[in-house]
Amino acid sequence: MNRSSIDWSGPMPAITTPFHEDLSIDEAGFTANIDRLFDAGATGMVAAGCTGEFWALSLAERARIAELTVAACAGRGPAIIGTGAIREGEVIEQIHAAKEAGADGVLVLPPYFAHLTEAELIAHFEAIDAKSVLPVVLYNIPGNAWNAITPAIADRLADLDNTVAIKESSGDWGNFHATLLRVKDRIRVFCGPSSAYGIPATLAGADGLIDCFPNVWAPGCLDLWHLTKAGKTAQAWALQRTGIALTELFTSGGRTLYPATKAAMNTLGLPGGGAMRPPLRDLSGPALRGLKDGLKELLQEPAEVA
Asked: What pTM value is reported for the model?
């Protein structure tokens, strides 16, 4: 397989996993969020990734998320399922569950916590790729996983038999662009932090955007891609400025990205928010008040802000 084996492109949101107050999965909210995002211009869905709190889900719950995602996508775009785990065997088990559910591909994160050498990291992906029964999207997010898929490592992994794409979420433009230049001829390259540099990534030749912000800000974040591709750059840059401001809002003032994302969805009355599962906690107090104030200012929708 290679980039020509798939036709995935455009903005494919990294979707949340909503939980009820008793911390069970809100399946109706999960599906409603997918429907809303397709209606707003999404071209596919990426579930059970970092935004989807994969670490808080059992393997059985991840398999259920795969089933729900496939059913909700219903031919409107690819269903790509996260398989985050440290052990190769656990990743492969999740790939088989995603295949059984009918998923189109899997998102494969480097092992986390254990610090790997370059050779160990490459061997990890080689072992998974060799046993994968679905197309593999590499996932570089060293801020969370610690182990980084550098441009040089991506260059090696781009030749693996079942690897078709990479989600580059380092947050470092230089790393993103170097990766794009080295592997784009063989695998597809998706920009993670599109809220920060979605327009430059699109103009540089990225195949699409995979970001958490459409959960809160759609169609705005999705239109970073659509407007840029349509040549409507003035409108696109106005959205990019909002995206940068939202990123700052969600990651400052005692807030981190994933709790802030769900709190914003709840504040705006959007499906797919709900509660956080520990160890993350729901926003409260000054952090929540600051988020609400910022949303009211940035999105200019005071009637929707609780």
From this structure: 0.96
Mean pLDDT by 10 residues, the chain (306 residues): 98 98 98 98 98 98 98 97 98 98 98 97 98 98 97 98 98 98 98 98 98 98 98 98 98 98 98 98 98 95 36
Helices (H), ranges, 111-150: 118-131, 142-145
Measured in whole angstroms, the distance separating CA 54 from the mean position of its chain's CA atoms is: 11
In 3D space, the residue among 8, 20, 26, 33 whose CA is nearest the CA of residue 64 turns out to be: 26
Q: Options 3.20.20.70, 3.50.50.60, 2.60.40.10, 1.10.10.10; which CATH number does 3-230 get?
A: 3.20.20.70
DSSP lists the bridge partners of residue 220 as none
Q: Parse the chain into domains and list their residue ranges.
A: 3-230
Q: Which residues does 266 contact at the CB level (< 8 Å), separation at least 6?
A: 273, 274, 306
Catalytic site residues? 139, 167
Q: How many angstroms separate the most distant Cα atoms in the chain?
A: 54
Return d(Cα 256, Cα 48) in angstroms, integer.
18
The rounded radius of gyration (Å) of the Cα atoms in the chain is 18
